[in-house]
């Protein structure tokens, strides 16, 4: 059963929400920011309607440095219409990680806009716990770097 977590990061008032929305659709920036141990990446294909909701997707092959060697995985990025949502699917061998990011407008009474990321991890129970902990630890920092 997938493990899920949500990371919410306030968008600084000095950063326009539209700039965050545009950055979510900048694939180079997204890959370089969310893969801090990036060795290399290559664009593999543009798929006009391969997602479950028939939206175009871009597929990349990403190689990351790991504590023991390196790993290569497929990253599928789908720019969702409307509010600038982004969906990222990482297939990494025995587990998959699916993220959905959206820059939310300021809620009534809230001091600022937020960047919200929902992540589902699909692996065995032990790996789910480890990956979820890593996501919850590293993604707030990634959000900050992404918004700079």
Automatic annotation (TrEMBL):
**Region of interest (Disordered), ranges:** 79-103
Query: Where is the DUF7053 domain positioned along the sequence?
Result: 5-65
Q: Which InterPro entries match?
A: DUF7053 (IPR055481)
Q: Where is the composition biased (Basic and acidic residues)?
A: 83-92
Name this protein carries in UniProt? DUF7053 domain-containing protein
Species: Apiospora rasikravindrae
């Amino acid at each position: 059963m997938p493990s899920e977590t949500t990371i919410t990061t306030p968008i600084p008032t000095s950063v326009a929400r539209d700039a965050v929305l545009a950055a979510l659709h900048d694939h180079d920036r997204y890959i370089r920011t969310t893969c801090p141990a990036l060795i290399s990446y290559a664009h593999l294909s543009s798929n006009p309607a391969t997602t479950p909701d028939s939206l175009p997707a871009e597929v990349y092959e990403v190689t990351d440095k790991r504590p023991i060697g390196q790993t290569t995985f497929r990253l599928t990025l789908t720019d969702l219409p409307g509010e600038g949502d982004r969906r990222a699917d990482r297939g990494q061998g025995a587990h998959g990680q699916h993220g959905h990011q959206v820059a939310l407008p300021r809620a009534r009474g809230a001091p600022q806009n937020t960047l919200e990321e929902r992540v589902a991890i699909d692996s065995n129970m032990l790996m789910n716990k480890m990956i979820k902990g890593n996501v919850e630890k590293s993604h707030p920092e990634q959000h900050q770097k992404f918004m700079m």
